[in-house]
Design brief:
Structural class of chain B: alpha+beta
CATH architecture of the domain at 225-338 in chain A: 2-Layer Sandwich
Shape of chain A: globular
CATH class of the largest domain in chain B: Alpha Beta
Number of helices of chain A: 13
Radius of gyration of chain B: 27 Å
Strand content of chain B: 15-25%
Distance between the termini of chain B: 55 Å
Strand order of the largest sheet of chain B: 3-5-1-13-10-11-12
Number of strands of chain A: 12
Strand content of chain A: 15-25%
Number of strands of chain B: 30
Chains: A alpha+beta (about 350), B alpha+beta (about 750), C alpha+beta (about 260)
Oligomer: heterotrimer
Number of domains of chain B: 3
């Protein structure tokens, strides 16, 4: 880690000011990804401002949903009674990620600012346009088994690693940010993260000095039919090969509304809008799920080593939808014994 | 023997659960500085220049050392090194002596600073220019350049080349396939670390994470030009090794750094360095062919391995088990070895057998299907009680019992031969099994036993406990050999100044040091008896030595319980506060490296106590059984339960022994399902760089594991009757799992690890 | 560090060893301080079995450094003053802003029980408990610990009396090399309160059923302990140890304990 100035922000305005005046300064939340990258010398901010003591660590009910604090930890959020009861998809997604220790440290805002785990990004001796613009993409013609099948560019084929954000994408979350002079704005979740295009070094549309104060989840009627499915190379404590956040509301066996988002397949949480469109108003049947999954995956563009992800993602959509249809508590989370 | 075998808890357990067991990097010294090594960023070439101006300006920097200014080590000279016991380096390369780069990640400079943070930051600032040469980075494309090595560690490497072609062709049933295994890394939880303290210009102490204190001392002394008794290597606790903790460049590097700055220096490797600098198991491509007759008898076994080496002659000997298992009249084991520019391949838990049993035991399963025979019965039908190459009897032979007991405990009879028959919901369920084997090694070793008049006993030997239980089982053996309780016995190991013992490798520690410990106790008892016999006030006065036995801290006339004399009383009357005995024992035959044992008088184990007079073949055997559940859509595999039945001779401590086997099986689950280091052939860099990419099993990956020991003492390996147990647990595991996956899905996977992408 | 006039000539490490290892009656023998050479002699000749089993530990402590001298402030860059509690005692440190809590414990405070396994949050060996929650000290800057309460493996036992989780790990052989062990135990101790709070995991069958204390199945324990890697492969034994402390009376060992040894 290179030397940096450290301070503890007394209030949000002070934190924002400190960051705004220094282009190399960063907010410090749980540090679980930032310190990791600083030790790798991938990131070397000259200043860190600790924001974990700011008053954005709670979860509040609003007239139209809930506001989840930006500095609340992932563990606190996942286990908050209101989240568990009303937004079990978010709870399941958070609990699918990392380890208990990391979830106790990582903040919600930090989760959205996570950077890719692409090995070429992490290795400062390798080319990577995200880390060093113009140096090339090591993964494009390299080992890209874990990389994107949607939305990638010649500049970058990395995937975004968060599980939590996949659920937030499905739940149409809104990101609340604050900038200098107490300026506030909101960013729809779909507009928060970016595809790599020609500027893969920019992960998301947050501007320097903007602080994520909270994440808003609008009310929904998906609580009874939600499922977060994660496929990985070992059974826990590993990033997703493919993940699916699925939630639906049902009128009898008819799908009233539905949300599907994929993780591990693109530079941002991948909202499966093609599949959603095909399913709204249709019967919740395996046959319909399969048709919708196939429609979504039709546009996949796999790389040399990740063709398996296309089939896996399709099957994962079907499985997640079927488990969601059967109700929370049904599915792989119940362990092997259930066999479903 | 009342203590030996008992499942007592580890005597070092309390220190380990309270955080007080001290590992190499924890020997902080006054005025200590920190070193951070700099790694080459090319796979092959020459360093043209090193610009250290910026690094030197960094706060706290004490020194930047490279080939330009490093202390000159004595050059490599295999003959002289052999004589000095200093031949066994991880890689035949010395740090910072020349500008040549042999692999990406090689240590080419080191920064020493006041703090760890400062050393690391300054290390980023070195500017190094290279002339790059074309590196060999890919096994398959380099195979045309491969050579056929004549020898592997003193044994013929190419056995019966070409001799199986005719019998295979004539066989009624043939199986002929290629199996591949990836690069695997040891990744012990404790990263390699060394603290170097120069006590004077010719005296050095190294606190080192090593599997062999004697070996490290000899090598460091040789290259630094010191007397080996002046290099003390201390390693009371070592956080796992699995073959990786031999001597690598960093140990010499830190000694150079400490010399340069005139202060104690600590160097702990990062996890990323563990992927490039401390060895790995090389990838293999194995071609196995089996021929069998219509009755299911094997007629020929052929096992060819393509692999690579770098900077040593070591290569992965994956044909080993194919020279030992099964009755087949003709067998052929051959190797093609090329050289790659990547960190040096080395010993890793069951070197050879781990990838080798994957290939052979998968092929055996394929042949069982070909023959429509039960895989257990097929193996039993081809069992051999003799070493097929040497013709010697195995020193103990319970493999058939392992199969039978394992099948019974596992419930093998519920298996359906036809694949894909058993399912639960989305899961396809399958059973698979394989044979486990590993050689039983024993080396010379010396042990000193000291007793005080207060009845405290201390056992000293330069052995190591890398988690294997050496402390505990040694106390148990000495407790029995002296008739004193375990809690009066203090075990001192992990220090090169103690009597010599072999390194903790090759599953030989127990078989080597316990006979010496026992012999030292015999000597001590004899000396006590001599005092008593000569002492008019002893009840043993004037009796013959052969009449005297011992129990409960006393010498006793056999059959006359009341005629006894306590050790403490004998010593007090003789005005002795402390007595000691030291013994060196070595195997009469069988394998084993000889260790110089200058500190103790060598004593041949008396022939009547060691029936290893004629030649035996020393091998442990076992049977592994796995049940897997395969997700039909995603190809994710979970091992649902596992049974391991092992014949490893006498069990010294049932609790620690069981843990060793469980640990081996879990290592095997990792090799089967997830472990692989992948390299980008354009640059030769590992793309799996850390524990985030190099997956090892986590708790949720591991099912209940049922372990059963045959437990019959091996009457030939030593009077103790125990063979090693650290490595056999991993052997056969990946084949048992792959065979179970075939049984579940009908898909035969011949390329490890069995990641989901291969089943989708 | 704290002043203890009792054994003025001993280093902190030695004094702690002595205090932990000597039963009360032994302490009485030592009336007015103890010299270093007496200490060595004492531990060599004392006849208690308890001490015999611990000699090794003492010897090691003796071989180590004396208390770590404070760094000259000149070598500390971007210094941050931190006041926090470690294992119940107040600590004040001036740290380089880059220094992690793990390095502060290991390099500055002589608390080497917390281990550095990967330094990147990928193995769990550095797990400590901060304000009641298990966290990774390798990804925690020491500077952020102002006012926090840190519990490390060294702080779990009550004097000579091991924490039940420590005792269960010994009994069930929940370790081999011992390097991941402090992290495993800290993690397991914190897990007990997470279960009591009714917190869910990825394998919890219905996360909507919130709030009541949970009885952890083996699968639940395995998932919740998956952030602590053990390369020796003690996982099944770790699960048994945790089940026992969690109150599962059914945890049987496969061995008979004829001698009552744990």
């Amino acid at each position: 880690m290179r030397p940096f100035k450290y301070s503890n922000a007394a209030d949000p305005a002070a934190a924002i000011t400190a960051i705004s005046v220094n282009a190399d300064a960063k907010f410090l939340g749980g540090g679980t990804n930032l310190l990791d990258l600083m030790k790798e010398d991938v990131m070397h901010p000259s200043e860190l401002v600790n924001i974990t003591r700011l008053k954005y660590a709670d979860i509040e009910k609003t007239s139209n949903g809930i506001l989840i604090g930006g500095t609340a930890t992932n563990a606190f959020t996942a286990n908050h009674e209101r989240v568990r009861k009303q937004y079990p998809l978010l709870t399941m997604a958070i609990l699918a990620g990392a380890s208990a220790q990391i979830r106790n440290m990582a903040t919600n805002a930090g989760n959205l600012n996570q950077r890719t785990r692409c090995s070429y990004f992490y290795d400062v001796n390798m080319p990577c346009n995200k880390r060093t613009p113009g140096s090339g993409c090591g993964a494009l013609k390299g080992l890209n088994r874990n990389h994107a099948i949607f939305g990638w560019s010649e500049k970058c084929v990395a995937v975004y690693p968060s599980d939590m954000a996949v659920a937030l994408a499905a739940l149409d979350a809104v990101v609340h940010v604050e900038a200098g002079n107490q300026e506030k704005r909101t960013i729809a979740f779909a507009d928060f993260h970016r595809l790599p295009g020609s500027t893969p070094q920019i992960d998301n549309n947050l501007k320097h000095g903007e602080l994520i104060t909270s994440i808003e989840l609008p009310e929904n009627d998906f609580a009874a039919h939600s499922y977060y499915l994660k496929v990985r190379e070992r059974s826990s404590y590993a990033f997703a090969l493919v993940s699916v956040a699925a939630a639906m509301s049902l009128d009898g066996s008819r799908i009233r509304d539905i949300r599907i988002a994929l993780g591990g397949v693109a530079h941002k949480p991948w909202r499966a809008t093609a599949a959603e469109k095909l399913l709204v108003g249709k019967e919740a049947t395996m046959a319909n799920f399969k048709v919708a999954a196939a429609a979504e995956l039709k546009n996949a563009r796999p790389l040399e080593h990740n063709k398996y992800k296309v089939k896996m993602a399709g099957d994962a959509i079907v499985r997640a939808l079927s488990n969601a249809m059967n109700g929370v508590g049904y599915g792989m989370n119940a362990g092997l014994e259930a066999g479903v | 023997m009342s203590e030996t075998g008992k499942p007592i808890s580890r005597i070092d357990g309390r220190l380990k659960v309270t955080g007080k067991a001290t590992y190499a990097a924890e020997f902080n010294q006054p005025n200590m500085a920190y070193a951070f090594p700099v790694r080459a960023t090319i796979a092959k070439g020459l360093i043209v220049s090193i610009d250290d101006a910026a690094a030197k300006k960094e706060p706290g920097v004490l020194s930047v050392i490279s080939y330009k200014n490093a202390f000159r080590l004595k050059p490599m000279d295999m003959q002289a090194q052999m004589k000095a016991g200093a031949a066994f380096l991880g890689e035949n390369l010395l740090p910072l002596q020349e500008n040549k780069v042999h692999y990406l990640g090689q240590f080419i400079a080191v920064v020493v600073a006041e703090t760890y943070e400062q050393a690391r930051t300054a290390a980023y600032k070195l500017k190094i220019r290279y002339t790059e040469e074309k590196a060999a980075t890919d096994l398959k494309s380099e195979l045309p350049k491969a050579k056929k090595p004549k020898m592997f560690m003193g044994e013929e490497a190419q056995v019966n080349e070409g001799k199986t072609a005719a019998p295979l062709a004539a066989s009624a049933h043939q199986v002929n396939h290629s199996y591949s295994t990836p690069v695997e890394h040891h990744h012990p939880m404790e990263p390699h670390a060394t603290v170097a303290v120069w006590d004077s210009t010719d005296k050095l102490t190294l606190y080192d994470a090593t599997q062999g204190v004697g070996m490290t001392s000899a090598i460091a002394a040789y290259f630094l030009g010191l007397q080996s008794e002046n290099v003390r290597v201390v390693a009371p606790y070592v956080g796992g090794g699995f073959g990786s903790k031999g001597l690598w460049l960093h140990t010499l590097l830190v000694a150079i750094a400490a010399k340069a700055v005139g202060r104690p220096v600590k160097l702990a490797l990062t996890r990323q360095m563990m992927q490039t600098n401390v060895g790995h198991r090389a990838a293999t491509i194995q071609h196995v062919a089996l021929g069998a007759d219509t009755a299911g008898k094997l007629g020929a076994v052929r096992h060819h391995t393509d692999t690579y080496n770098n900077l040593t002659t070591f290569f992965e000997p994956s044909g080993k088990q194919s020279l030992v298992l099964y009755q087949a009249p003709v067998r052929e084991v051959t190797y093609n070895v090329t050289t790659l520019n990547r960190g040096t391949p080395t010993f890793m838990r069951a070197p050879g057998e781990t990838p080798g049993t994957f290939a052979l035991e998968s092929a055996m399963d394929e042949m069982a299907y070909e023959l429509k025979m039960d895989p257990v019965e097929f193996r039993i039908a081809n069992h051999t009680a003799k070493d097929p190459m040497k013709g010697h009897d195995f020193s103990s032979d319970s493999l058939v019992d392992c199969y039978r007991i394992g099948a019974e405990r596992f419930g093998w009879s519920a298996r359906s031969m036809e694949p894909g028959q058993q399912r639960k919901g989305k899961y396809l369920i399958g059973y698979g099994m394989a044979t486990a084997t590993y050689p039983g090694g024993r080396s010379a070793a010396s042990v000193k036993v000291t007793m005080t008049a207060n009845g405290e006993v201390t056992v000293r030997t330069a052995s190591i406990d890398i988690g294997t239980g050496t402390y505990t089982v040694l106390a148990q053996t000495v407790a029995d050999a002296l008739g004193v309780p375990v809690d009066r016995i203090d075990v001192k190991i992990g220090d090169s100044s103690l009597p010599a013992a072999p390194l903790a490798g090759g599953s030989q520690t127990t078989a080597s040091i316990h006979p010496a410990a026992m012999e030292a106790c015999v000597l001590l008892r004899k000396e006590l008896a001599a005092l008593a016999i000569a002492d008019p006030s002893s009840k043993l006065n004037g009796r013959r030595l052969d009449e005297i036995s011992y129990a409960d801290g006393k010498l006793v006339i056999t059959g006359e319980e009341k005629k006894s004399d306590a050790y403490a009383d004998i010593m007090k009357r003789a005005k002795r506060t402390e007595m000691e005995a030291c013994a060196t024992t070595q195997p009469v035959s069988g394998p084993g490296m000889t260790v110089p044992s200058a500190l103790c008088t060598p004593r041949e184990t008396p022939p009547e106590q060691n029936s290893d007079i004629k030649q035996y073949a020393f091998h442990s055997f076992g049977a592994q059984f796995a049940e897997v559940w395969v997700d039909q859509d995603f190809g994710t595999i979970r091992v649902k339960r596992f049974t391991s039945v092992q014949d490893v001779g006498r069990i010294m401590n049932e609790k620690t022994a069981r843990s060793q086997i469980i640990g081996g099986v879990i290592f095997g689950i990792g090799a089967a399902l997830m472990e692989a280091t992948e390299y980008d052939k354009r640059w030769g860099n590992p793309v799996t760089r850390t524990l985030a990419d190099y997956h090892v099993p986590v708790n949720l990956d591991v099912p209940p594991i049922d372990v059963h020991f045959i437990g019959k003492p091996d009457p030939h390996i030593s009077p103790i009757g125990a063979r090693g147990i650290g490595e056999i647990g991993i052997t056969g595991v990946s084949a048992a799992i792959a065979n179970a996956v075939f049984n579940a899905t009908g898909k035969r996977l011949r390329d490890l690890p069995l990641t989901p992408d291969k089943l989708v | 560090m704290e002043d203890q006039p009792k054994f003025p000539d001993l280093t902190d490490a030695e004094r702690r060893a002595l205090e932990e290892l000597l039963p009360d009656e032994m302490s009485e023998i030592i009336t007015s301080g103890i010299k270093r050479r007496h200490f060595l002699k004492l531990i060599t000749y004392t006849g208690t079995g308890l001490l015999a089993t611990h000699l090794l530990g003492i010897e090691q402590l003796m071989a180590r450094s004396t208390a770590v001298a404070p760094l000259p402030p000149t070598v500390i860059e971007n210094g941050v003053n931190v006041s926090f509690q470690v294992n119940g005692s107040a600590q004040q440190l001036l740290v380089d802003s880059r220094m992690t809590l793990l390095d502060a414990l290991r390099e500055r405070m002589d608390l080497t029980g917390s281990k550095k396994g990967c330094d990147h949050g990928q193995c769990g060996a550095c797990t400590v408990i901060v304000d009641g929650r298990r966290v990774l000290s390798c990804l925690t800057l020491a500077a952020t610990c102002e006012d926090k309460e840190v519990t490390t493996i060294e702080g779990l036992a009550d004097g000579d009396k091991l924490h039940p989780m420590q005792a269960a790990f010994i009994k069930h052989d929940g370790f081999q090399c011992g390097y991941c062990t402090p992290g495993q135990i800290c993690s397991a101790v914190a897990l007990m309160s997470e279960a009591k709070n009714g917190e869910a995991s990825y394998v919890t069958s219905n996360v909507r059923e919130a709030g009541r204390p949970m009885e952890l199945s083996e699968e639940e324990i395995r998932e919740r302990m998956s952030g602590n890697i053990c390369r020796c492969g003690a996982y099944p034994n770790i699960v048994d140890a945790i089940r026992e402390v969690h109150g599962d009376k059914a945890v049987a060992q496969v061995w008979q304990f004829a001698d009552g040894t744990i």
